[in-house]
Amino acid sequence: MVWDPEVLEYRFSPSHPMDPVRLELTVALARLLGVLDGVELVRPSGFGDHELRRVHSDDYVDAVRLAGRVGPVRAVEVPVLAAYGLGNDDNPVFAHIHEAAASIVASSLAGAQAIASGSATRAVNIAGGMHHAMRAHASGFCIYNDAAIAISWLLDNGFDRVAYIDVDAHHGDGVQAAFWNDPRVLTVSLHEDPRWLWPGTGFPSELGGPEARGTAVNVPVPANCPDRLWLRAFHAVVPSVVRAFRPQLIVSQCGCDSHATDPLTDLALSVDGQRAAILAMRALADEVCDGRWLSLGGGGYQVVDVVPRIWTHLIGATLGRDVAPTTPIPDEWFGVLDAYPKGRLPASEHVPTTMGDGQDATFTPWEPGVSDPGDKSTDAVADRFIARARSAVFPLHDLDPEDPRD
Fold first, then answer.
1. In whole angstroms, what is the distance from residue 366 CA to residue 351 CA?
2. Phi, psi for residue 331 in degrees, rounded to 5
3. Can you give the residue ranges of the Histone deacetylase domain (predicted)?
4. Contact 252/75 with Cβ under 8 angstroms?
């Protein structure tokens, strides 16, 4: 596990939903459950700005540095920052924004380097997963795209086939854009219907550039999609295309804003369903690339009730210390919550007592068949989305979109 306390400085404002307290609470919960017993947490070192330029333009990195120097009050005096997506409601300027964002990149890169060196088979950076950042502008709470930078480094250091799997409720648009025309990288994103959720991209017809057709895979799911349909969609598309691509390593963005109580999205997953997805990605890494797996965080804005639990499951899965959903949350963790100053943590409608939501994470596998176009039920819409995704990309991998065995 890579952990640099500097990532806690990545805080846009006191009211911004991307609150680093979610990371602090996750580490506290993982420690109290014994998941980190005897584990030496890795702190990145030797990171340079040249790594940022693998994905980001020189002028953008300079703009982020400038934003951090002028700070939030004077940012309005520098209109050029707006052209780089800096200083708006999503991406407010804060002091030392460059250093805080770069620390997240350094952490993901340290995980990639540990796997490449052979010192680890799996690595996790819960602060990572800033998948919306583009080459020359900030986007969706993301300043630097740590996932894309780590993948770029891997491509230059012994890997020539990397699969990226994104299970955040929002489309992984920045990573897709970074490798749009690169046949060495498969980007797979499972996300809420882009007709209704920002950033409005991630349709099945988005398949990659002319030299990399089929390496962009998009699987939208309908609003209010529960565990059983989300997992059906995942298993109907993701394992097949990843197996066909034959990657040497899997990078996963494990945003947990698909939870039913997340304030920014409209999906209906439970912690149990999200945990099942994490274990499925680990199993896929074990099957196709000798276990090599770099797992990252991402979105997730129910910062007390959900994020600490699901990312503790992510840490446990990465370290081979799986946590059962029925595991009680230690009383000491609630003491950690009580120790925060009044008003620092958002009010919670339901503070959980166990590491799961008590939901059944089983699903019925997808079967071919055309549902009545007039059927607007979530089940029918989900199955039509699955069929469209398979029809769009499966033939490009010599897979049969109508054969459920593929």
1. 34
2. -60, -30
3. 16-315
4. no
- The strand pairing partners of 166, in sequence order, are 189, 253
Distance of CA 403 to the CA centre of its chain: 29
Q: What is the pLDDT of residues 88-131, one digit of tens each?
A: 999 999 999 999 999 999 999 999 999 999 999 999 999 999 99
> CA-to-CA distance for 274 and 225, rounded, in angstroms?
13
How far apart (Å, rounded) are the C-alpha atoms in residues 385 and 381? 6
377-381's contacts with Cβ under 8 Å and 24+ in sequence apart are 378/222, 378/223, 378/224, 378/225, 378/226, 378/229, 379/229, 381/222
388 and 204 Cβ atoms separated by less than 8 Å: yes
Catalytic positions: 132
Per-residue model confidence as pLDDT tens digits over 208-227: 999 999 999 999 999 999 99
**Distance of alpha carbon 92 from alpha carbon 86, whole angstroms:** 6
Record the tokens describing residue 149, joined without a space.
């930078």
**What are the DSSP calls for 198-261, one per residue?**
TT----TT----TTSTTSEEEEEE-TT-BHHHHHHHHHHHHHHHHHHH--SEEEEE---TTBTT
* Three-class secondary structure of residue 6 per DSSP: helix
Distance separating alpha carbons of residues 220 and 386, to the nearest angstrom: 8
**Structural domain boundaries in the chain:** 5-169+227-356
Partner residues linked to 250 by β-bridges: 163, 293
Cβ density class 191-203: b for 16+ within 10 Å, e for less: bbbbeebbeebbb
Q: What is the reported pLDDT for 349?
A: 67
Element (H, E) at 133: none
Q: What are the pLDDT digits (tens) for 336-366?
A: 999 999 999 988 767 899 999 999 999 999 9
Chain-wide mean pLDDT for the chain? Answer: 96
- Residue range 51-61: mean pLDDT, rounded: 98
CATH of domain 5-169+227-356: 3.40.800.20
Residues across the chain: 406
